[in-house]
Design goal:
single chain, elongated, Oxidoreductase, FAD/FMN-binding protein, 3 helices
């Protein structure tokens, strides 16, 4: 959270938190529900940041 807050103070308004996935690259725009539920490693952190 400290880094995110420092970035916000510096004027950064977008932070992508990603663990990456070779099998389903984010650039394809296709996210299956089964993948999202298994691999949302940073979901709680992202939800906390967006609050």
């Amino acid at each position: 959270m400290d880094v995110a807050l420092a970035l916000e103070a510096a004027g950064i308004d977008l932070l992508e938190i990603s663990g990456g996935n070779y099998e389903a690259p984010a650039t394809t725009g296709i996210v299956k529900n089964s993948i999202a539920s298994r691999e949302a490693y940073f979901l709680s952190y992202a939800e906390h940041l967006s609050a």
